[in-house]
Amino acid sequence: MKKELFDTNPILKLSFDFSLMIIEYCECLETNKKYILARQLLKSGTSIGANAMEAQNAESQADFIHKMKIAAKEAGESQYWLWLCKHANNYPDCDILIDKAEEINKVLTKILLTSNKRRQIISTASS
Hints:
Elements: H1 3-8, H2 10-31, H3 35-55, H4 61-87, H5 95-126
Helix pairs in contact: 2-3, 2-5, 3-4, 4-5
């Protein structure tokens, strides 16, 4: 993994930093014996960056879009688990993580909109 890739690619940087925060939060959940949500959140929260990273080596524009859509789905799922943590009794504060997840969702939405527009332009030009 090249550091330069993270320095020049906002979604990779955001999702990597988010993953580190999720790991720390999930360790806190496990310490408090909140195992079920900890596991669910750990999987979805770290999967965002993994899918965004995988998209960097996509075989085509369609493959890139597909992988980014998966990252967006994982981000949405992570938000759901975080909202549960926020509203459940006796769970540690997760407002910062909710804000970060929202930021990631906005970036992924922009990436997908731009990628779909490019794909349509390429498709129209080929016709």
